[in-house]
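Today's session is about reading a structure prediction critically. Students often jump straight to the picture, but the first step is always the sequence itself: look for stretches that repeat, for charged clusters, for runs of hydrophobic residues. Only then move on to the predicted structure, which in these notes is written as discrete structure tokens rather than atom positions. Here is the chain we will use throughout the hour.
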Amino acid sequence: MHQTRLWVALIFLPAFFLIVKYLPTFFFLLLIMVVVVLGQYEFFRLFYAEELPPVAYFGLFLGPLSTIGFYFNHFILGLFSLVGILGLLLIFQVFFFKDIKKVFAETGVVFLGVVYIGWLLGHLVLLRGFQNGEWVVFYLFLVTWAGDSGAYYTGKIWGKRKLYEAVSPGKTIAGSVGGLVSSVGVSFVGKFLFLPSLSYVDCLGLGLLLGALGQLGDLTESLFKRSSGKKDSGQLIPGHGGVLDKVDSLLFTGPAFYYFLLFIKGLGKGSMVL
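Below is the predicted structure for this chain, in token form.
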């Protein structure tokens, strides 16, 4: 299992680095849109194991559509896109529903999938839109994934007391603490590698904030999987599970990091980060 995870990482990480570092933001947008479609499909499968309703397939189109507004580097456009997406969902249901008794539940699930995956993950496009935004993205991924890995390995070695057994039986308090420590430590490393303009206070605060939100994002996905009786959201990535299993933390850390840079650091479209 560990060898498989390592080989997948060795293949994915260089490709990810090349896309983020050397290609225009548009190609990063395309990557995020693909991830959104795959993640939404896994999410809908948690609720509809046998056959997806027609509105779910429409949601697979609307999810990546919600990220396009972010391509123009402003969260307001992404916010207004949600209003349009909800309207399109309701119009679709009026004319194409199959069972009127299920319309309310189906619309709610699909809209949740669009917001939870498409809209939240779309904030990564906003981060990439900053001048030198590739370093912003690298910092975010490094801190977020360090928290995930730190929690996993610390929990494996020292974990005894469960963190929240009803939602995620495998997570422990020791793992949670280890994840936070890893996020904080790597946040300081990320300052020297990617974002030297961050202060030491920023690094400490971001390490704690992103570390905690990453774990909350992981617990949120575990809640959905637990309620549907699934261990993984999918099996697309060997040794790692589904796409949603790999981005669940980023769904929460991406927006938090963007709004931190926007409102706390005062960065806007085209702002210099480094």
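Discussion point for the tutorial: The CA atoms of residues 135 and 194 lie 5 Å apart.
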